[in-house]
Specification:
Blueprint (H helix, E strand, L loop, with lengths): L3 H10 L3 E3 L2 H6 L13 E4 L3 H14 L3 E4 L16 E4 L6 E4 L4 E5 L4 H9 L3 E2 L12 H7 L6 H4 L6 E7 L5 E4 L13 H4 L8 E8 L1 E2 L3 E10 L1 H12 L7 E5 L1 H10 L9 E10 L1 H14 L6 E2 L3 H12 L1 H4 L6 E8 L5 H15 L5 E4 L4 E8 L6 H18 L18 H4 L2 H14 L31
Parallel strand pairs: 2-4, 3-4
Antiparallel strand pairs: 1-2, 5-6, 6-10, 7-11, 8-9, 8-10, 12-14, 12-15, 13-14, 13-17, 16-18, 17-18
Helix pairs in contact: 13-14
């Protein structure tokens, strides 16, 4: 414990807004995964100077600091498992567009969709679009290198980032890179902070690359008899001459839930689905969708002829996440990445594992980059169901790594996945990461207990009945 009165007085002297109210502490205690750990105080940064001030106080008193944006993360990265200070950056939300350079200069708290909207006014767009884009902050996206639906064509956050301003644990702010098209002046410090989840420094500003808005988008959809036929469809598209900007797969368990909840959609039993979107000029978008239909003609693929029909196609994907609760009121989930050649082997293993554990195993995800969201669904009041789900996920992650895959593609590690780091990385690799952490943060005040420290979550339970803004 630390002297809360001393911290409050220090924040007040520095002109930093803060709160230790019960509601504010609870709101800052959890993310989308709903594991709750209360901080002792929440500081609200409105400027880089506020961030620096908070870190100087925390460093002097050796108080842990957990950085928070919008709280949409799925791995507990912004959850204050060590208590202390939550540094809320949501007020650092300015957005400035430079259309000549095609750069957006934004605060870490700027919301992804708002950045895209501001760019649209200049005929530009920001490509990364995580499913939480209406709520997620740019700082949070940088923290876990968020991807999203369009990553197949446009890459993840890292690929669309020009430069960063980062406040180090001692309160000094450094600039990493410049908002230029080319920059090769020594080792790239910028990328050390991308994916570091607030363990090395606090991102306060970012310079994001923008692209010209596509003139047109076209959606296409195909249903398949079961999962393996669906994966054959994915392979046909990946081996073809077309590049969708989006390629989303929904397995037969997921689609059955969508079918039950939405009988008006007319989805057949036992079907899996592949949704694609193509963008570019009118002719490029049309040609991409037309070729998709041609390549998958034996499966009855269709191209949307109107925006209304395209939205009907998209509803199949948008309803997938919530529909899975037909199979249980709780879940254990991860976002793995698989080599394309190993997808069928993994799915055979995963589905067999579900049958062995008597658990549903719905899957959907970004088929174009091998990033699948895998789930074990269970009912919380069923004896040992959660334990079986955790056991199954451990085995699934080990299999993922054995097949040459990754334990996370876009959600990051936080504390919920930290136990998988030794499976993914060698002892030497983890040692180097810890040495880098110590170099930047010798007092270990930034997000302690995350990423590099193995956490056992078997005795932890997510809160139930908590509704978040993006639900």
């Amino acid at each position: 414990m630390f002297d809360l009165a001393k911290v409050s007085a220090a924040f007040k002297d520095a002109g930093i807004e803060f709160s230790a109210g019960a509601k504010q502490l609870f709101d800052a205690s959890l993310d989308h995964a709903r594991y709750s750990f209360s901080p002792d105080i929440v500081a609200y940064a409105k400027s880089g100077a506020d961030v620096s001030g908070v870190l100087k106080v925390a460093g002097r008193l050796e108080i842990p600091v957990t950085v928070r944006g919008s709280g949409t993360g799925c791995s507990g990265g912004c959850v204050p498992i060590s208590g202390g200070i939550v540094l809320d950056l949501s007020g650092l939300n300015f957005i400035e567009i430079d259309p000549l350079s095609r750069i957006a200069h934004v605060g870490a708290g700027a919301v992804t969709a708002e950045v895209d909207k501001a760019a649209n006014a200049f005929g530009l767009f920001y490509a990364p679009d995580p499913s939480s884009h209406k709520y997620s902050s740019i700082g949070g996206n940088i923290a876990c290198n968020a991807g999203g639906l369009r990553a197949l064509k446009y890459g993840c956050t890292r690929d669309n980032l020009a430069a960063l301003a980062v406040c180090l644990p001692d309160g000094e702010t450094i600039k990493c890179g410049l908002p230029l098209r080319k920059f090769s002046a020594g080792p790239n410090l910028r990328d050390l902070f991308v994916g570091s989840e607030g363990t090395l420094g606090v991102v306060t500003e970012a310079w994001l690359r923008l692209l010209p808005m596509p003139k047109a988008r076209r959606a296409a959809l195909s249903f398949f008899d079961g999962d393996e036929e669906g994966f054959r469809g994915v392979e046909k598209i990946l081996l073809s001459d077309i590049t969708p900007c989006i390629l989303e797969f929904m397995d037969s368990e997921t689609l059955e839930c969508v079918r039950i909840r939405n009988p008006q959609m007319g989805i057949g039993k036992g079907k899996s689905a592949l949704l694609a979107e193509f963008d570019g000029t009118e002719s490029e978008a049309d040609e991409g969708a037309r070729r998709f239909v041609e390549i998958l003609s034996e499966y009855g693929a269709r191209m949307a002829k109107t925006e209304a029909e395209a939205e009907e196609f998209w509803q199949v994907r948008r309803k997938s996440s919530q529909a899975m609760y037909e199979l249980g009121d709780s879940k254990v989930s991860q976002d793995i990445v698989l080599p394309f050649g190993a997808v069928c082997d993994f799915f055979r293993f995963f589905k067999a594992l579900g049958r062995e554990l008597h658990l549903a195993t719905p899957v959907f995800g970004h088929a174009g980059d091998g990033n699948y969201h895998i789930h074990f669904m269970y009912f919380a009041d069923e004896k040992n169901a959660r334990e079986r789900a955790l056991e199954g996920m451990d085995k699934a992650i080990v299999k993922t790594v054995e097949l040459g895959g990754a334990v996370s593609g876009e959600h990051g590690i936080g504390f919920l996945k930290s136990k998988y780091m030794p499976a993914q990385h060698s002892g030497r690799q983890i040692s180097l990461m810890r040495e880098i952490k110590k170099l930047f943060d010798p007092k270990n005040i930034l997000n302690p207990g995350k990423v590099y420290s193995v956490t056992d979550i078997s005795g932890l339970h997510p809160l139930r009945g908590v509704k978040l803004p993006w639900d």
